[in-house]
Amino acid sequence: MKVSKLSQDQALKQAATWFVELQSEYCNDQRRQAFSQWLLQNPAHQQAYDDIASLWGNLDKLKSREVTGLNVARSTRPRLWRNGKILTGSLLLATVLTGAWQDFKAPSTAYQTGIGERQTVQLADGSKLQLNTDTQLRVRLSWWRREIELQQGEAMFNVAHQAWRPFTVNTGNLKIQDIGTVFNVRHDNHGTAVSVLEGEVALHAGRSWFGENLPAGFSRKIDPNGHWQKSEKTNPEQVAAWLNGHLLFDHTPLTDVVAELERYHAVRFAFADPALAKQTLSGSFNTADLKPFLQALEKVLPIRVQRQKQTIVLYSR
């Protein structure tokens, strides 16, 4: 059964009111029975109540912040208005919950780059996002929160500080919460890597409420199964090199080097001799031009390059 937006809003308001009343010490068996009957009236009622309960369980910022009238609403017993209508703390809190639900459902905007492309996105809050090659993400800005979903790829986040409105990046099974920072996040089939250039972030794995802080100058990785690697010192210049269209390598195994280049070009590398993958390479290379890299390979390493359409085969020489 399709539920209209109007009936959805009405169900949410009713669910918010029921939620608050059920928490009250004045709720009796008769009211609980009425609640059970309300749930059975429409399948949308159960969904609305589950949504409100879930939302309230995650409103940690709201519950820890002073909101005008909210503390009074929690403790006030019903009293009569002059016109005979009843004003309750439950109604006020229900209004807050319904507003929070509408905030939670704020629309999102999608951004995407192709292979070899970069894009800069300036958000309305003053934050700047820089997207690297083959990246997809969604941005949701609302009154209470700033939320990014990094679906794949890599992005640098320069976050405008707003203590009252948290900035979070969700990717895979990792939630990254900004604490006034510039940080880089890369997400692919191998997991998620976070590098902090300025400030600090809090890392939350899965649904954990408890995070681990990662300060500037350090990076940390988590694999697709949620297993952490130890945090490591990072080279800010190397992390941010892609912003200027470069890749920096420092005694990097060749297998990792070519994997990086495959992100920026529609090619695949193959090793005719598997031992070549263990060779290391250092230097700075332009992400947009593959030819100088291939020429450098043949000059500095015992390698012969042969290109076969979209496949580049590396031979020993």
UniProtKB/TrEMBL annotation:
Residues 13-55 form the FecR N-terminal domain. Pfam families: DUF4880, FecR, FecR_C. Coiled coil: none annotated. InterPro entries: FecR, FecR_C, FecR_N, Ferrdict_sens_TM. Residues 247-313 form the Protein FecR C-terminal domain. Residues 111-201 form the FecR protein domain. This is FecR family protein.
